[in-house]
TrEMBL record:
Name the UniProt record assigns to this protein: SPW_0924 family protein
Listed InterPro entries: SPW_0924-like
Top-level division of the source organism's lineage: Bacteria
Length: 45
């Protein structure tokens, strides 16, 4: 029974955290116009 109560409390805390983060909204900012390099550039010709 204690495990069920602990699981319910943990679920309620997780749900409250998700709702709080979604209520605050995404942080404002901008993205870089330059693309990210995922590989090492080849030699220049």
């Amino acid at each position: 029974m204690r495990a069920l109560i602990a699981a319910a409390i943990g679920l309620a805390v997780a749900l409250a955290l998700v709702l709080t983060i979604s209520a605050i909204g995404a942080p404002s900012g901008h993205t870089s116009p330059k693309p990210l390099l995922t590989t090492v550039p080849g030699p220049t010709k």
